[in-house]
Amino acid sequence: MGLEVTVRAEAPIPLDVAFRVEPGELLALVGHSGSGKTTLLRTMAGLWRPQFAQVRVNGSTWLDTAGGVDLPPHRRRVGVVFQSYALFPHMTALQNVMAAMDRADCAEAQRILDLVNLHGLAARKPAELSGGQQQRVAVARALARRPRALLLDEPFSAVDHATREKLYGEIIALRAHLAMPVVLVTHDVNEAQLLADRMVVIERGSVVREGTTAEVMADPEALRAMGIREVAAMLPAMIAEHGADGLTRLEAATGPLFLPTVDGAVGASVRVRIMAHEVILSRDRPVGLSAQNILPGRITRIVPGRGPAVTVHVAIGADEILSRITRRAAEQMQLEPGQGVHAILKTMSVARHHVAKAPATAADRLQGE
Amino acid sequence: MLLARRFLFSVAFSIGLLSSSSILCAQQEVPVIAAASDLQFAVSEIAANFAAETGMQVRLSMGSTGNFARQIRQGAPFEIFMAADEQFIADLHAEGHTLDAGDLYAVGRVVIMVPDGSPLQPDESLDYLAAMLAEGRITRFAIANPDHAPYGMRAREALVTKGIWDDVQPFLVLGENVSQAAQFALSGNAEGGIIAYSLALAPEVASRGTHALIPEDWHEPLRQRMVLLNGAGPVAEAFYAYLKRPAAREIMARYGFVLPEG
Amino acid sequence: MDWTALWLSLRLAAWTVAILLPVSILMGRYLAYRQFRGKGLVEALVMLPLVLPPTVFGFYLLVAFGRASPLGEFWQEMFGTQLVFSFEGLVVASVIFNLPFAIQPAQRGFEAIPVEVREAASCCGMSPLASLWRIELPLAWPGVMTAMVLTFAHTLGEFGIVLMVGGSIPGETQTIAIAIYDRVQAFDDRSAAIMSAVLVGISLFTIAITFWLSARVGRRLS
């Protein structure tokens, strides 16, 4: 079940990729421009046919070059959000959404527009909507198709930072209502880390790394392919208290975490992206430091990197953060897997856009359908 | 929605427009007469009288004789051909396009015509023209195209006879038919021209200039012949007969045509 | 004022538009969307009537369906009349020499539709026909309308080809443009002036509509 994709081609760009996405899962295809990720998305949508490819969704075949099957896009149940949104300029937002329906259902279209937070804007034409609003209409239209797979082609690249953050949150919230496999094409690793369950890193048409987001983000090779030199980890935490001095206290698995004020209600779950090079390690709990965040944990493994650095994987309860220190330091401190350490993090080193709401759990998703 | 409504309106309008062609199908009953341009005024008047007397209509198409002959060979649906030169009729008859050899209906004449205000004077000996040519005071002189218009051929012959053809040639403006030549001659852009006598006598033309008859023996005679063409119907036959009757002949005479005996 | 000639001209223009409308949409769309080897040649051929002298064109048309040609003989057998010197012959000639006016503006209209919008239509479940009716035509219709308006106006004014292929047969092939020519030769300046004024009026109206439509293309797609 789910979405299975296999593509091999030599022209116009070489491609050799295979992956699968389970229902309800969000997979990010990450790579530079020209890596082939958009070609893959177009192949899944039916807008491109490579030399050799197979695309199967929930058991039915959309594309099988060997078997001579090639359903055109309008015969596939696919929802596509284009980079430029590609809204129909002569139709209102509501009409755009209804255009994707088998039977035009005004009430249902309104419901979907409400779902993407576009209540009250149904009668506006695309020219009268902001970039973020247009993106939401595009998402609504893709969902109105009742697609078996949802494909997003760099859907956030055309909006500004602030809008992007808001949209991330909405997509995460929306996932509770999505039971189909979702593929997100992006060049922004941060975005992938925030939104995706699994990642496929593509470079020059080949898969460099595939796995869960945590696995991939901890792999320096994969990150180098993406042009990222710094590994990072996502640490789940719960908002405990909004302080009057501009700090929010969150509770992570092994202790409190203080960050500049985080959006969200007390009790809400978030994930915090912690850059490995911002984490200092100490054998004993340090005193007299300015850093507010000191989390006890246990070393699970130490991965040597190129040059003078090593990446230390530290378990924080059931979660994990990464720390990137010099090999010299690791040797001086005689760090070994299994040892207890303290991870030290400056409050001010966590950027605002590195905090995201946590996605609904799988159980919540299934219940929501 | 708006697009659909506009589309349907256009379709309805078009259907209305196209189906009106059935109304004009009745035109098929009205024969088309191909007449040499020198007959412009004469045959229009005769056709009007014909309609008044008999109630039957004909349609007139005016043009150069040579052009009509070509079109008839290509299957143009004329029923009567009134040519300005009988050779064209003879050729068509030999090729089998006509019902018979036709009838001589008139002998035409050419005149030199000058518009009011022109420095050129009309004189039958063409001396004035020759003099102005010698002085270099001629800029444009109009005749019908000698290649396919009989009146143009005769104009050339007359100029050759006078001996000034080579001199006038660089200044010639050729009308596609003798009517157009008359147009050019009177337009004010030419000093004058050689056109049909029948045209010069028409009030519309006479009022705009003066003319002089060119001697008959300076050119081949303009023996104008008419004929019924293959497929001519009863209305055409009636009109053909009408053309030979006194009333029609009298009109022809008024326009300077010399009539054959009988 | 020769009403027969004006009516004939309007009928000729109407028939030409009726026949060329589907051609305009289908060919304009095809040329806008597809790249193929020889596309340049096809576009040049479509443009040809624009640059070819009307008399050359008329000559070739006469050769192509005159009495002696295969097409002319076929027509004679089928319908008992000639294709040349008939209204039907004028329609055939008119359709051919209006191809550039009918196709090019429509092609521009379809080209202006962003590719992704068409792809989105397909991903929304619309078949090519549904996409044409619901998305492409509503966006490209100013281009198509411009093509039809230009075709209509151009047909009203066409002279050389009509004269060569149709002659000047009142009620059959004597269009208003030729009627004006005929009236001038008959020294009937008054009729010629009236008919010319009518044609000028129609031409100005055409230009106004074309400008208005062009403005709409811009607004449609922004």
Describe the structure.
With 369 residues, chain A is α+β, with helices and mostly antiparallel strands. Chain A is built from 10 helices and 21 strands. Chain A has helices at 37-45, 93-99, 106-115, 131-144, 161-174, 189-195, 213-217, 220-225, 327-333, 362-368; strands at residues 3-9, 15-21, 26-30, 52-57, 60-64, 69-70, 78-81, 149-153, 182-186, 198-203, 206-212, 232-242, 247-252, 255-260, 269-275, 279-282, 293-304, 309-316, 319-326, 340-345, 355-357. In chain A, helix 5 (161-174) links the parallel strand 8 and strand 9 (182-186). Chain C is mainly α and 222 residues long. Chain C has 11 helices and no strands. Chain C starts with a helix and ends with a helix. The mean pLDDT of chain C is 89. Chains B and C meet through helix 1, helix 2, strand 2 and helix 8 of B and helix 1, helix 8 and helix 10 of C.
How many DSSP helices of chain A? 10
Strands ordered across the widest β-sheet of chain B: 2-1-3-10-4
Helix content of chain A: 10-25%
The secondary-structure class of chain A comes to alpha+beta
Strand content of chain B: 15-25%
**Based on DSSP secondary structure assignment, what is the total number of beta strands of chain A?**
21
Please report which band the strand proportion of chain A falls in: under 5%, 5-15%, 15-25%, 25-35%, 35-45% or over 45%: 35-45%
Q: What is the number of strand segments of chain B?
A: 10
Overall mean pLDDT of chain B: 88
- First-to-last CA distance of chain B: 75 Å
Largest sheet of chain B: 5 strands, mixed
